[in-house]
Amino acid sequence: MNNSEWNGMIGCLTRKEADIGGTALFFTMDRVDVIEYVAMVTPTKSKLVFRAPKLSYVTNVFTLPFDRQVWISTVGLVILLGVFIYYILKWEFYKRKESPSPVMKVDQFEVALISFGAVCQQSANVIPTSVPGRITTIILFISLMFLYTSYSANIVALLQSTSTSIQTLEDLLKSRLKIGVFDTIYNRHFFPRANDPIRRAIYEQKVAPPGQKPNFLPLDEGVRKIREGLFAFHMETGVGYKVVGEIFQEHEKCGLQEISYFVFTDPHIAIQKNSSYRKLLKIGFRKIWESGIQPREVNLIYTKKPMCTSRSSSFINVGMVDCYSAAVVLVVGLISSLLIWIVEIIIHNR
């Protein structure tokens, strides 16, 4: 609309230069007064499509294999058996005072190392020699061996898993995913005019951040960014999934998720206001739909969401982001051991 006058196809209808609009239109309040909608001919499903991010991108997978009760029980088991081993070693020491040996030495720190070593599936240089002590030690190592095996198997599965935490527009706004929009006239019209706080924030923070070029992209480029990951692309799913089927590998189709952005009525064919063809066209389009011709053509033209057929055969590479928590523990351990070594040298040289 320019200077309160309609241009383009709607202008031709209002000036009575055309009887029927050749392109289906979305419903808007300002159009209702000047044209008339008669029939829906092309069901349009525009959605934000993205590959579900890896689980390790949204949470620490190293705490997920066990729930809280199992973690508490495991810590309690290690502490309880550690206390038993300590008192057994102490009893062995007093029982055989006449022949002390490193095996019989009682030291809380050494017992703590035995327990921690068992957690990490490592041996110890001090082991009880009595029957009760050996039974307790065997119980400790066997129990933690089963827990360690279960934990390791769950970690492998979790590192290959994707997250389902992004289900709403608010989740998408708070996520690390970038957002692009299919470069069409109606997207450029509707996105900047969104009044909802969440949609407005998505446009201002992720689609068109201040000082940056708005992220309106061609369809092929947007779909390729979806494939790369951590990117959501708002597109017409009918034509977008056709490109997805051509570009994506089979296992990459398994993690596709959708979130509706706009809630629109499907576009309708428009005619002149108070046109004498109104009833005739409505009946004609209804017959085309009821006869199955229109649904058939729609199914031939628009591609449905690809089916996941090879989820079990897919393999996801593990990167540094996935192992971030483990890397932090390793670095902290190395730094701590270095500092303790320096302190020991200083104390020894005094």
Q: Roughly how much helix do the residues carry, as a percent range?
A: 40-55%
What characteristic shape results from the CA principal axes?
elongated
CATH class of the largest domain: Alpha Beta
Q: Would you identify the regions where 5 or more consecutive residues have pLDDT less than 50?
A: none
Biggest sheet statistics: 5 strands, mixed
Mean pLDDT: 84
Report the sheet-strand fraction: 5-15%
Give the SSE order as H and E letters. Answer: HHEEHHHHHEHHEHEHEEHHH
Textual characterization of the structure:
GO terms for molecular function: ligand-gated monoatomic ion channel activity. By secondary structure, this protein is α/β, with parallel strands linked by helices. The chain folds into four domains: about 100 residues, D-Maltodextrin-Binding Protein, domain 2 (3-Layer(aba) Sandwich); about 110 residues, D-Maltodextrin-Binding Protein, domain 2 (3-Layer(aba) Sandwich); about 100 residues; about 30 residues. About 50% of the residues lie in helices and about 10% in strands. The strands form two sheets. The chain has a five-stranded mixed beta sheet with strand order 4-3-5-2-6, with helices on both faces. A two-stranded antiparallel ribbon has the order 1-7. The longest helix is centred in the middle third of the chain and has 29 residues. The termini are far apart. The model has no long low-confidence stretch (mean pLDDT about 85).
